[in-house]
Amino acid sequence: MKRSLAFGLLAPVVLLVTGTILYTPQPEPTVALPETVHIAAGRQAYRPPGEFRQGTRIVDAPVGQMDVAALDIMKHHVSQADYARCVAADACAPAPSNGVSGVAQTFVNHADATAYARWLSDQTGEVWRLPTDAEWLRAAAERGFDEGFAEEASGSDPSRRWIASYRREVALRGEADLALHPMGHFGVNALGIADISGNIWEWTETCFQNGTLTADGSSITAQSTYCGVRAVQGKHRAFVIDFIRDARSGGCAAGVPPDYLGFRLVRD
Amino acid sequence: MFTRRTALLGAALIAAAPFVVKSVKAEEVMDTSGAAPVDLSSLPRRKVKLARPPFVHPHEQVATEGPAIIEFELKIIEKEMQVDEDAWVQAMTFNGSVPGPMMVVHEGDYVELTLFNPPENMMQHNIDFHAATGALGGGSLTLVNPGEKAVLRFKATRPGVFVYHCAPGGPMIPWHVVSGMSGAIMVLPRDGLKDHLGNPVSYDRIYYIGENDFYIPRGPDGAYMRFADAGESYADTLEVMNRLIPSHVVFNGRVGALTGDRALEAQQGEAVLFVHSQANRDSRPHLIGGHGDLVWESGKFNNLPERDLETWFIRGGSAGAALYTFLQPGVYAYVNHNLIEAVNLGATAHVIVGGDWNNDLMEQVVAPSEYDVLHEGRTALP
Asked: What pTM, to 2 d.p., does this model score?
């Protein structure tokens, strides 16, 4: 819709400027298909993210075993050059670029990432979308982090879990790394996926969730989601408000913020 | 020989020239050798090694002996320091840290400071103690060139926490201060701290939070500029300084210096004295989730402390002290409650407090959960 409107506006301008060139319908623009990594179908042990309670205590959600379909995910982050094509087509909001080739697009929010996915789907005739938190963890393989807390931190004292969570994020994240490295800088993981869990945290489709567990803690009885906040994944999982482009200043008073926000897509 | 150093000193003098005309008297370097001698030979001497902030050297809270001459040493180190992951400053420091180390003495003690300006430095420096009386706080007795040292002795006559800073004349004064050259000294009453009723109080831990405002210029590409040395950074930095909007406001010299694995620690039930100094600009410390039980907002212990404060004001060029006993475990944020400065510019520290949660003080009665919008929440509005 947006695209055809843009063409409608641009065409007369082209005619006016060039004068002699007549407008002829262009063949469908094409972009090179992004390089993807195929992950075979199988089973995944997955712990839903968010805040879960058992009685009055905040506890880890139980790990569920799910059958999961095969997954094709971009080997690399969406680059500044990739994203610039979407901006040029008037389908993506402008985002900062340092003009260096081979650098991932950062300073993007959830809407920017999904707009890019729509545009790429249009261009390729395939369906591209952000991964879910669970899909990202499959792709991250050995670089993903989905551990529960020790029993000590799931006890009745809420401060223990809070402190444990703070210390764990500090340990996982290490020093902030605010250099934009060339793509490939962080190497590939066991599945051949590049730069995952480097200094770019990646947007996922997954919304913030609240839930309560059964008395024995084995399953979830009630659950609600809030999609104004999405899970972003990297060295640790963070929940980020969907319109934030720089999470360093979007964190809360006593948390550990991601370095950069970027994304990669999966193909259905 | 025309060295970088002479070039820099020359540049500094030219820059200082218009100011010198009106303030040359005040900035005159002086000595005290002609004044009547004082005999302090009967006083004991103690040498104290300074600790790196936020820590403070071991000290007595209540003096068990009479006044003494307390000897400290400060070495001025000019070096590049990282302020944030993407920002560096050509820092000027006392003992290599920003802020400089905190000194603790008792009222009636004599502070005897040896100030070293090593030969590898480029600039003149000195020290102005707000706790001292006369000679621009010692500044006009301590102006040392690279390769020189000076020894200053002053009597600690007023109990309180006080700023010290470098003040080498003219436009060098603000520049040296916002390049990191400030610290604090605490002069304790000989019988220790007292509450609002005059009853003795003590602390289990003390942390020294030195707050700094930095003015780091950005280049044409928007990135923070990095310089080969302090002299090269002067002109661009001055331009940012004169607009009065800091690029960074930080505790302990850099963004994140007191968070993460460098977060401060305490235990439930412990009384912690937070000494906060800001040599150049106003600040408003606030402990999120806690209070100031007893706060010497202006930092001077002959005044009664205020009680139960939520936020306290540190005037630029002063230090204050807040005593708080942690009642609840968890992660606390100690911030400058200009929250833009706290969250976006860096002025945040974290305190990790271990202990047992007290539901009497606070309890989550209903955890976040969906409510029935048809029937609930209608009584909230007037």
From this structure: 0.82
